[in-house]
Each structure stands twice: as structure tokens, then as C-alpha cells.
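Show me a record, fold above all:
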Amino acid sequence: MASDDFPSVTFTHSTSRIWWIVGGLAVLVLITGGIALRVAFSSLPPQTTVAGVTVRTPAQAARVADDVATRLVGLPVELRTVAGSTTVPAGRLGATLATGDLRTAAEEATGADGWIERFTGGGPVELPLDVRVGGADLDDVVQAVTRDPVDGDIQLTATDVEVIDPVPGIDVTEQQVLDAITPALGDLAGLPAEQWPVPLVVELDGQETPPFITNESIDAALERLEEITAEPVELTASVVPEDAQTVDGQGVPTREEVRLLLAPADLRQLLTTQVDRDAIQRQRLQIVGDPSDPPAALTEFLDRAAVVPDMTISVENRSPVPERGAGEAGPGGPADRAAYADVGTVTGDLVATLREPGLEPDLADTVDAVVEAAQTPLRTAEVQGEPVTDADPALLGVVEPVSTYTTFFTPGEVRNTNIRRIAEILDGTLVPPGANLEINHAVGRRTAEDGFVAAGAILDGEFVSDVGGGVSQFATTFFNAMWFAGVDIITHRPHSFWFERYPAGREATIDYPGVDLELNNNTPYWILVDTHTTEDSVTVTFWSTPYFEVTQSIGPREPVPGQDFRVTIQREAVAPAIPELELEGFTDDDRFVQTYGIPPS
């Protein structure tokens, strides 16, 4: 064996084992890496968030999204316009959170591309939240933030003029609401829920709508108002006098012209505004009459202006006069006989002729006339209403005789001319309620030109001849008609001496101008004075509506030294209550004591 030969060594088994070990380790590394990569790629890359919340897995991202969706539908949203505001939950507005895109994005982010992008310079990943709005009924929401335009106006009272300014309207549509809330809700998607504003305020841009009545209309109406109320307006009416008096040569007036001055404050109370939809802007707000709340003075004036027709009334087909000397004489002497005052025997036909229509006033038409007159230079108006043209005595309450009396005289005497003449003048005289009739003044001075003649009269206790002498017999007849009618006796004077043709005490004389006979019609009805003469009598009858219940007495004749006698007459007139006329009942007592002198021989 050679000396340089070395024995051979074989490592077959050792090398093989090493490679097996190395290979095993490599496999282990691969398995472990694969497992690690599998685990890594099933998670989301670091700094992945949902609504500001860091999430590690798609499942966690889905849970966060579901929580955001729940918070979203319950988030209070305040919608505002200049017209108003309303606060409702976002879910009521149709807001929902769609999570489909988020889930897809989360799955894609777990892949190798997501991780590679994250570690090769990519930034944090915000998984998308898709806020959607729609499908809800927004009528009440829209109504809460819209406003109809408010027309300008003028409010008028007697003491104030208030201007109501016009206000534009705001019109908001459902689409405008959706267009405003969609981005506002979408902006919340990237914020943590704890940072959401509560409520979420959303300003809406509505469309301004102009009012129909603008300041231009108001200014023009104010100018017209100033024109109408610049000065008073005079309102006139023809009325029945409340306290009518006779004047020389004229009977009781049945009409008089009266005036009411409506001051600016009264005029304002009679005005209001009215809208004309067909007019140009300046003329749309009009000042017109308003009768709804008239001044008390105007209401009272119209009550007075409600008048019956002015008519003449005569009596035709009269019943015959009582028989002279009929029945027994009473305590007043030969002329005091019940038959002479028996109104139950009086008949006749009332015949009326229209002189001037009456009027049923109309407040609304009168107010319109006042407003129209206020725009004229004269500024004067008449009461308006419906004319009453039916000449019916019953409209005056003249329906039947309520008293009568007849006295007699010797036919053929000169004085009879004067009795007939004064009766003729006063025949048909109408006395309104509340009016006074003075016989002396209604007839006027007795003159030859007026049909009177000279006849015997008594002047200062002496028998004289005077134009109109004898008219005192008419005065006595008239006084008895007054007496039994129950009307108020204002003035009367008995004769100085008693004549058998008159009831003692119940008689009267007249002498122009100082000695008069006057009554007041203190009934609620008109009185017609009806006179009638024959060749030996004169009768005076009052026609009206029965009102007073009259009882009367004539006392005994009492001797008076140096005089003829003294007698007392008494009358009680009882008036009933009339509720429909708002009249209370009352009693009127009269007592007259007359001392007669001894006539000159």
C-alpha cells in the first residue's frame, strides 16, 4: 500500500439529512408565511376607517355602518327659511344609509393590492358611506317652511288709522328640500357620530312671491282716505218734527229739514277697504263705505228719517151732528150733554191724498252716499232709502174717532161766519206725536182779507165788536175735544162770563195774540183735527188711535161774593203701557177752578 494513499470517507447519509432538514425548514417557512399572509389578507389594512372609526375587518366595518345608519335616521334635522322652521328626524325626510358599496369596498381592501398600496405610499382608507334621501311625503314639511304672501291693508276706526305692511310669501318645493338636505346629510358620513351637530341645521332657499296688495296700493288708498276725511260731511233728511210748534198763520209742521254733521272721526268709522282683483296695482286697494258699525249719532238720525208719507186727510160721509138738546143736561149746564161728546155715534170715511212720500232709510245706501259726497266740493248728502208712497191714514195711526164735541149757535148771526171760517182753516190739521198745536197762532190774526168779519166779542170784561168775534165758541168746542181725547192741555183760559151755550168750567176763549188755546199730542199716534159746521152747529172731532181712558167731573157751582159763581172741573187720563213701542203707562190728572163774573147788563 502506497504511503500517500489516504483512506476514503463517505458522507452520503449526513448530507442527505441536512438537505432534508433544510427542505423541511423551507417548507415550514412557506407554510407559516402562507398562513401569515392568509391571516393578514383577511383583515383590512391599517388606518382603515368608517365614519371616523378605525375598523380591522369587513365585519367590523359593517357593524359600524349599521350603527351609523341607526343614528342617521334618528338625527334631528332643522329646516329653515325666513318663513319659519321645522325639526324632524332625518328618517322622516326619507334619509337612509346604503351599505352595499361599503361592504364591497371592505372586501376589496383586504386583498394584496390593498395592502401593497397601503405600504407603498398610500394613505388611510375611508370606506364609503352612501347617504340617500327620497321616497318620503314632505307635504307637511314644505308647508311648515313656506308662507303665503300677506297683502297690505288699512284698518280704520274712529280714532286710528293702522297700516298693515305687505309681506312677501316664500315658496319651497319638495325638490328644493331634497336638494338641500342630501349634501348636508352626506357631509356627516365622514365624521364620528359624536361630532354630528344636533340638530343638523339646513337653510333652504325658497322662491319669494310678491303680495297682491303692495305699498303702492296702500299709498294710493291713504291719499283717498285723507281726501274723504279732510272735512265734515253734512247729511240732510226730511223728518217729522219732534217738538213741532205752530207759528203765526201756520199749523203744526209735519216735516222739517234736519242736518247731521259727520266729523272726520265719524267718516273713518264708516269706511273700510275693499280689494279689486281686476284693477291696476295703484287702484287695487279701495276705500269704500262700511255700514257694519255706524256712529250712534247716524243711527239715531236715520231713526228720525224713517217717516210715513206726508198726506192730507179729510173725512167724507160724516154722520149727522147730534140733535140739539138731546138727552139730559149735565152739571155743566144746558150745553153739557153726553150726546154732544158721544164718539160712538161718529162715522165717516177717511180719504188721504199723498203730498210727499215717506221714507224707509237704508243705512248701506246712505253710507255710500256720504262717501260719494265726501269727494265732491259741496260735501253734502241726503239720507237714502226706499220711498213709501202708500197714502194710508193707518200709517199715522189715524184710524177712528177718539173724541168729539158739538156746540150750537143761533142761525143767521154775523158771528157764525167767523166760527165757520176758523173751523175751515183748522179742518184737516195733522198733529204729529209730541207736537203742540196752538189754535190762535195756527190760524193767525183774524183779518177781513182772510175771510173774518166784525162781530161781538169780550175784551177786558167788556162786550165789543171785533174782527173775528165769536171764534171763542170754536175754541170751547175744540177744548172739549181736547178734554175727552185725554191729550195734554198746555194753555187755556175760560171766558170772563158764563154763557149757557158752553159747559160751565169746561170751556175756553181765544184772542189774538195773547189769549191762546194749546194742546200737546202726548200720544204715540198722529191726531187728525176734523171740523164740521152746519147752519147752527160746529163740531170738532179728533181722529187717531184710542190711547187714553178718560174720566171727568164738573163740581157744583159755589157762590162767590161779588161774582157769579165758581166751579171746579177735573179729568183723569190713564195711558196704558205699550211694550212694542217701549212706552210705560202713566196717569195725567187735571184740575181747573174757574170763577165767573157777573155779566154786564
Summary: The longest strand covers residues 565-575. The chain has 13 helices and 35 strands. Residues 5-11, 33-40 have pLDDT under 50 and may be disordered.
